[in-house]
Structures are given as structure tokens and as C-alpha cells.
Amino acid sequence: xxxxxxxxxxxxxPEGAIASLNCTYSDRGSQSFxxxxxxxxxxxxxxxxxxxxxxxxxxxxxxxxxxxxxxxxLLIRDxxxxxxxxxxxxxxxxxxxxIFGAGTRLFVKA
Amino acid sequence: SAVISxxxxxxxxxxxxxxxxxxxxxxxVTMMFWYRQQPGQSLTLIATANQGSEATYExxxxxxxxxxxxxxxxxxxxxxxxxxxxxxxxxxxxVAAGEExxxxxxxxxxxxxx
Lengths: 110, 114
Fold this sequence. Notes:
The complex is a heterodimer of chains A (about 110) and B (about 110). With about 110 residues, chain A is mostly beta strands. Chain A contains no helices and 11 strands. Chain A is globular. Chain B has no helices and 11 strands. The radius of gyration of chain B is 13 Å and the shape is globular.
């Protein structure tokens, strides 16, 4: 069964620090990877998509992909209290199916 | 990205009843997806709603329990039938622009079954 694994957290970082969120996946053939942010009581919101090995930066967010290690990460620089949320890693596994990890809860302390 | 409207946003229902959730998209989309998010859990795909054909259900989900309609390219409904407290979840409608494109979600329906 195809799986996406994340540490559930909570991950607590001080304001201004770098938050590092990690994700591993089981399907070696996966090609598309996504990070979502979900505030409590809200629906998931897309932050980043990444399709190639290496880093992809968008503002304070950097997604990193290593297909050989089946590993995806999200770095949040200069973390703000408003970044406090659950971050979901998602992997497209083919056949119009996207599998989500259980999410990592992030707390940014002011 | 598409604007996805879901209703109701929340409901409290009694055991044994059914609830139909509506999902309206502001543009035509080929595939629409219904997910469930149980308390403290991640998202689980219930089914893929195809226009003009039967929905495709994931393992553990059956049409009798979760009938889906897809009458056109901008609208779908999910019915949760004969509800039990275990059906208490957030139900999310989502769409994608293409096969490997990211999903975008509606605001969700928070269902509580008593």
C-alpha cells in the first residue's frame, strides 16, 4: 500500500527561526509532490508543488525533493506566529490519486 | 485556481438519517474528488466523481453508503447515507487542473452525527 509518512509533531520553533518539516513516501515512481497548510477548522491550502530533484523556493518557503531517498521537506524561514498550522505532505501516485500524510503540527512561539 | 463552493458548511444530524453535500466549481473541470478528514486524521480519498459515468470508489467506501452524482462539469454531490457517529468528519470536495496538478479544496462540510 502506498504511504506518505510525516512526524505528527508538534514542532515548536521560536519566531524568526527556521522550521523544517519532513516527509517520506513509499512509491518510488511518484513524480509530483505538494505541501499544504491547514489552519484549525479550515480546509487545506496549497503552499508549494515540486516535481524535480533539488530545491524550489517561493518567498519564505523552500521545498526540497530527493527522489533517490524518497524524501520531501519544507523549510519555512523567518517563521511567524501566523505560520502555526498543520502542514500536510501530499504525493500524486498516478491514476488521478493523491495521497496525504497525517500532517505535522507547527507552533511558532512569539 | 478554481473557486470551489461547498454547502452546507456544517451540520448536526441524527443517527440513521442522510445528508447531501453540494460542491459547485466556477469553471468546468473533468475530475472532482471527495475526501474525508476524520478528527485528528489526514485526508482520505472517498471517490472520484466523473461526469457522465459512475463514480470510482476507493477501498473501504461503497456506493450504497456514499452515493455521488456528477450531472455536469461544474457540480457534484456526495450523500452520506444511514449515518452513524463514526461518520462524523469533515468532507471535502476538490478539483485539479490536470492529472498531476495539485488539488484545490472547497471550504469543507463539518458533519457531526449524534
